[in-house]
Each structure stands twice: as structure tokens, then as C-alpha cells.
Amino acid sequence: MLLDKIGSLFIKFLCSIGSISLFSARAVISGFMPPYYWKQIFYQAIQIGYFSLPVVGMTALFTGMAMTLQCYAGFSEFTAENAIPSVVMIAMTRELGPVLAALMVAGRLGAAMTAEIGTMKVTEQIDALTTLSVNSYKYLVFPRILTGTFLVPFLVLIDDIIGILGGYLVGVYYLNFNAANYIRNTLESLVAWDIVSGLIKGAVFGFVICLMGCYHGYFSKGGAEGVGRATTNSVVASSIMILLLDGVLTFVLF
After folding, report:
1. 223 confidence band (pLDDT: 50, 70, 90)
2. Which DSSP category does 76 fall into?
3. pTM of the model as a whole
4. ω before 35 within 30° of 0 (cis)?
5. Whole-angstrom Cα distance, residue 91 to residue 33?
6. Which of 109, 131, 125 shows the shortest CA–CA distance to 211?
7. d(Cα 253, Cα 150) in Å, to the nearest integer?
């Protein structure tokens, strides 16, 4: 019956929420207890922070450029071109910077985390770690969650700067805005809370991306096909959670 299917799906959803909550709690709690795997934390920091800069930077640059052009096409009809620097700055710091950076990280690193941990799971390498008295949550999961939570805000900040720079380049060198006026309008509309709110979103998004990547990889099964399915589920779940949490955080922060 229809009600049976709905009830079954709802129960599965609640079970998934509970499983993810227990998984995250176990990873975080175990991570703050010695011993600490500093090499793993440093390695994940390089993977998440340094190697994500090119894709995040390119995305921000072209987004800022395209946004400036689109704003000019609309604002010029109302002789409101002077508002373009403010709109680009606010949009990048509040919304586009955190969301685009998180989606790029989810596509690049969320899938990689799931595939790596999933491969270790199906080849029984995680069981081997347990046999060697190594806490797999502390060794595999916590370093990724920790570095993702702290470094994605850094990527968001870089995204904001490059996106605003892209808008400046198009506005000044293509649309012939006065450079001094463009910079002054941008700085006048700059509010510290806009930047801080974006960094808060970045921290939440980073935690979610790494959590989804590790969770789906850790519980993957069924060989190579299962790892591929877990990777897909990880990216989809991360992307949906990013957009959902963006709406919730925007409502709460503003």
C-alpha cells in the first residue's frame, strides 16, 4: 500500500539520520583523544586547501565576470550602474562565494574521499587497521573532517577576493568604469558581517562535505560497483545539503 511505502521510506530516512549522527559523533570524539595523527592532518590540509585553489579560483573569477556583465545589462536600463560594485561584492561574500566554493570542493574532494575510503573498505584495509589496533575513525575520518571544517572557509575567502577582482576587471577594462569609483563603491558597501557570515557557511559546508564523503565511503560495499555508487551518493548528498543548509543559514544569519 502507499502508506506502507511512505512509512518505510520515512523510517529509512530516520535510520540514515541516526547512522550519520552516530558516525560523526564517534569520529569527532575519538579525534580529540590521543594519539594524534599529525601527518594525516597535514596531508589532508594540503589536499583540501592547496590543491583546491585552482578550481575554486577559476570558478570565482568567471562568476564575478559574468555577474558584472549581467548586472550591467539589467541596471543600465534604470541608470543604476553605480550599484554594480556593491551588488557583486554582497552577492559574492554572502552567497556565491560560500556556495560555489563548497560545490567545487564537494565535486573534487567529496568524490575522492569516498572512493579512497570505499576502496579501503571493500579491500578490507580498514579491517587490517583495526587488527593493528588503529582507530579507523581517528586515522581516516577525523583528519578529513577537521581540515575540511577549517580550510573550506579559507577557500571561501579566496573565492570572495577573486570573484570581486573578476568583477573589477570586467567593469573597469571592458565596461569602462572609473577604477577609483569602482573601488570606492565596493569598499563603501563592504560590511564585516557579510564576510564573516560567508566564512561561517564555509565551515558548515566543509564539515558536511567531509562527513558525507567519509560516511558513504566507510559503509560502501559490493566491490567496484558499490564504491562507484557510494561516490555518486556522496556528491549528490553533499550538494543537496549545501543548498539546503545555505537557505537555513541565510535565514538564521540575516
Report:
1. confident
2. G
3. 0.91
4. yes
5. 40
6. 109
7. 19
Q: In Å, what is the CA distance from 67 to each residue of 27, 118, 181?
A: 40, 39, 18
Among candidate residues 13, 201, 19, the one with its CA nearest the CA of residue 96: 201
Q: What is the DSSP string of 190-242?
A: --HHHHHHHHHHHHHHHHHHHHHHHHHHHT--SHHHHHHHHHHHHHHHHHHHH
Q: Quote the pLDDT of residue 1.
A: 65
pLDDT (tens digit per residue) in 87-126 = 999 999 999 999 999 999 998 888 889 999 998 888 888 8
pLDDT band at residue 37 under the 50/70/90 scheme: confident
Distances (CA, A) of 85 to 78, 81, 115, 162, 173: 16, 8, 41, 14, 14
CA distance 34 to 109: 27
All three cell numbers of 154, joined, read 579559507
- Return the DSSP state at 36: -
CA distance 26 to 142: 9
d(CA 198, CA 3): 41
For 112-213, where are the E strands, in sequence order? none
Contact, 244 vs 205, CB < 8 A?
A: no
Are 109 and 214 in contact by the 8 Å Cβ rule? The answer is: no
| Cβ–Cβ < 8 Å for 104, 55 | yes
C-alpha cell at 10: 520515512
Q: How far apart are CA 31 and CA 34, in angstroms?
A: 8
Give me 150's grid cell. Answer: 577549517
**Inter-axis angle of helices 192-218 and 111-122, to 10 degrees?**
20
Tell me the three cell numbers of residue 69. Answer: 556583465
- The fraction of the chain above a pLDDT of 90, given in percent, is 41
